[in-house]
Amino acid sequence: MKLSGLHLLLTYQCTLECDHCFVWGSPRQTGTITLQNIRHILQQAKDIGTVKSIYFEGGEPFLYYPILLKGIQEAASAGFEVGLVTNGYWAIGVEEALEWLRPLVGLIGDISISSDLYHGTEKISQEAKNAVSAAQELGIPIGIICVAQPGAGAITPAFGQLPIGESAVMYRGRAAEKLVSKAKQNSWEQFTACPHEDLREPGRVHIDPRGYVQICQGISLGNLFRTSLSEICRNYVPDEHPITGPLLQGGPVELVRRYELPCEESYADACHLCSEACRVLRSRFPDILTPDQMYGLKEDQG
Ligand SMILES: C[S@@+](CC[C@H](N)C(=O)[O-])C[C@H]1O[C@@H](n2cnc3c(N)ncnc32)[C@H](O)[C@@H]1O
Ligand code: SF4
């Protein structure tokens, strides 16, 4: 596995609690990365030699602005391309957005602002417009990520990193609980492949505050505070992995068949079936189907 990007979940905490959120961001969530741990992660990224970019996301990374800024400074001075994903709550005006963003000039190559009808009442919020104006004035590349409502028609599903522009909602995390009733249901037998993640050669992984290296939300390949990232990469044999192996062979359908799991007739999408299967399998693979936060629980509640 050759990783080119690490996405750091700086915190699970958030100003919002969007219905679609696949990381269960919430003001009540716990878990934030310390500076010492950011340094440890950056060092691990350097050690494996293939990582080019570091993204800061969450939860809402601007909630811990001094840590975010220092992390960005250290990632940039270590030679990484740096990006971040935010809900833009801080951009209450253009003047204020300029103050938040000015310290990032020259350090950051991409800001993605999320704006849609999950994050607010308007598809493009005033905060997103303010952030875009300020970033453009400062010469920081910026784009808007917009996730479509259930049943919005033919919207391209995301593959890998979320694209700038509109993409379809994936029914995982909180979306698998809150939104599935609004979605068109499809026979479970049609979900014979993972349409969103490259499970064989993922390219990028998410790392949470407790060090879990996640190939998809709640599917962990290891913990880089216990095992080095290079060892986690070396040890990952996709076809033999208890979760990604079946997923590669036949998608969430194969996961259900392989482990003889209970299953409904229909699901909203592949992520919905996969999430339900992983939830049932947690007790069998507790070191893989973790952390608790990705299953809607607080730290150590699982
Ligand atoms: C988890 S948020 C974290 C950063 C920040 N709080 C934000 O909202 O931009 C990162 C991105 O994931 C998107 N996202 C969350 N849940 C999703 C889902 N179920 N399907 C598709 N995108 C999702 C959000 O809309 C956002 O653009
Ligand atoms: S999508 Fe972003 S803004 Fe919404 S709850 Fe999740 S982390 Fe927070």
List the helices and strands and how they pair.
Blueprint lengths: L4 E7 L23 H14 L4 E6 L6 H13 L3 E6 L7 H8 L8 E5 L11 H13 L3 E6 L17 E3 L7 H4 L7 E2 L16 E4 L4 E5 L2 E5 L5 H7 L8 H15 L7 E2 L2 H12 L21
Parallel strand pairs: 1-2, 1-8, 2-3, 3-4, 4-5, 5-6
Antiparallel strand pairs: 7-11, 8-9, 9-10
Helix pairs in contact: 1-2, 3-4, 7-8
Short description:
The chain has 302 residues and is of the alpha/beta class. The protein contains eight helices and eleven strands. The chain has helices spanning 35-48, 65-77, 94-101, 126-138, 175-178, 229-235, 244-258, 270-281, and strands spanning 5-11, 53-58, 81-86, 110-114, 142-147, 165-167, 186-187, 204-207, 212-216, 219-223, 266-267.
Structure in words:
This protein is α/β, with parallel strands linked by helices and 302 residues long. The chain has eight helices and eleven strands. It has helices at residues 35-48, 65-77, 94-101, 126-138, 175-178, 229-235, 244-258, 270-281; strands at 5-11, 53-58, 81-86, 110-114, 142-147, 165-167, 186-187, 204-207, 212-216, 219-223, 266-267. A nine-stranded mixed sheet has the order 6-5-4-3-2-1-8-9-10, with helices on one face. Strands 7-11 form a two-stranded antiparallel ribbon. Helix 1 (35-48) packs parallel to helix 2, helix 3 packs across helix 4 (126-138) and helix 7 (244-258) packs across helix 8 (270-281). The protein is globular, with a radius of gyration of 19 Å. Iron/sulfur cluster is lined by residues 14, 16-18, 21, 23, 25, 58-60, 87, 114, 119.
